[in-house]
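To whoever picks this up:

The nightly regression suite flagged Phosphoesterase as changed. Nothing in the input moved, so I suspect the structure step. Input below, exactly as stored in the fixture:
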Amino acid sequence: MPSSAGRHATASMNRRRFLRTSVAGGAALVAVPAVAGWLPAADAKAATNAAAFVDDYKTNIVANQTPETNAVVRILGGFAQVWKTGGAWNTGAPLMPEVLRANMRYCARTTATRSDAQAKEAFIYDRQHQSYSVIAGLGPLAELYKSGAKAVTSITSAPDGTPAGKVNDAVPADAPAGSAIGAGSYDSELGKVAKLVDTVRGPFASSNPAKFAFQYPRPWRMNEDSEVVDTGKKDAFGFPVYESEVIVAPQLLRQRGETPAEDGGFPSGHTNAIHLAALAFAYAVPERFQEMVTRAFELSHTRIVSGMHSTVDVLGGRVMATALAAAALADPANAELKAAARAQALAYFEERTGTTADTLYAYAHSAGTDTDPYADRDANACTVKPKLTYVLTREGRGEPLTVPKGAEVLLETRQPYLTAAQRREVLRTTALPAGYVLLDGFEQWGRINLFAAADGYGAFDSDVTVTLDEAAGGFGAADSWRNHIAGDGGLTKRGTGTLTLTGHNRYHGGTVVEDGVLVAASPHALGQGDVRVVGGTLRVDKVLRVRGTYVQQGDTTLELLVRKNHGPALEVSRRVQLGRGSVLALRLDAERPPVAGTTVPVIEASQLRGRFDRVELNSDTLQAVPVYTTDGLSVRLLKR
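Regenerated output under the current build:
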């Protein structure tokens, strides 16, 4: 019988020969795939006749390993265009070798440049319970959560070298009575939240059925197959020798699986678990929704840094987690639990922080980056963006996304003022474009971009009416849309609440304010159409440019900011029409206030008709005297 080293060398030789022959475009000799469903006709039939994922997610059990029988395997079918499953773990065939080659190169570079600190961090998040590891995404609420949920961990540091044996998370001996690893104890002040996390990560959320179905090896098992640096040498069989190698973090060498056939790489189970837990927390604590999503992406990336998983593994884990979280949250059996978890979290954090539903968001974002690594939204966006696709390149031009059934539930607590149909539009208009092979599987769950969706619509493809109610509290009373909104449709703002637009918007259908407050927080916040204020207040931060006409009438208010030595606060390309009841409220800029005796431009237009009923100024020492012309309005500031 050959030695273990000999067997390993033979297996390595077979993988080199097989994969390099495939990469070269030759006819590779492979066993008949164990998963017959990967045959194109069967796969097409499965996709055509399949039930929606949210209705079929409980088919994800080990006994089901084909796209016809397993909903998770089916939605991950985009990977079947990249990889053809073989009869054994090491006999699969690259169908898109350029993708898998880039995948291995990325992993090799990442592990080769990994610092000792990053290796230790990767160990912690490999061994720590995934539900516990995402709690840090709660920022200023994280320690409060751990205390209230009695959530603990025994994995708080990493050794310098390789531990002697397996290391697993457990309740520390000195932990308070009733403590639990993961999301915490059900018998705690946040027990409903902990139970929701565990339910979302329930018995039908395992990555194992898909691992067995695809049989795609982990990157460290394919070191001999990656192609990064050609040494110019050839092995005994005439194949090139490469210097590329995926280097597993030393702390994790003895934590690896020992049976290749039962330890596949795609999809990443850790990634799946991380995103599932993060989305459950985001549902219960939507005040940190975007930060929890960012945390999940960051933790998932440590799977690549550790050398334990590849980019395609991590992408697959995120895709399945997005669908599974939606399925669990949309399941009627969990309706009472998810509502109770949200109510419990809100009541607990309000009581512990002395806030209300309207002020909890501010408290949850009150820390700086020195203590809250997710305090900078722009930095979060930079963290997430490249990890949405990793090494995948876009091919061709695809159709707009048809949002999978039930996906809108993921935004249910983050955007409670929108209807289910509107949340689906948010997901559709913020989705990744088609053409990324692994993300274009059945129902295209991989195209959903929850980080972007948390910032509202990406486009108004038809007219949008949004109603926020001041009495609803929280996001129901006030929200901000930060995306750059395009489209031919327009926006109508209703309700007593406040909506803020911050993007460089390009929608053409115009803007109507009927009630409450609409805040224009950027010069192009209101797109490229007409603006009509027929009720409520339009508040402008700094400067606003209106590309069409501006009409204000009835019991309405326009709030503008005036600054020293600055141009008009409102620039209108066409006509301004002011009607009875309209009020102009001026705010002095705190940093550069204009002084008494100066005349400050306020509105500039091609033509101005009508007048405000009154002009107000937020000053005890100055008064504003309006000066109207045919093409604008200025105010002369006088001492009272």
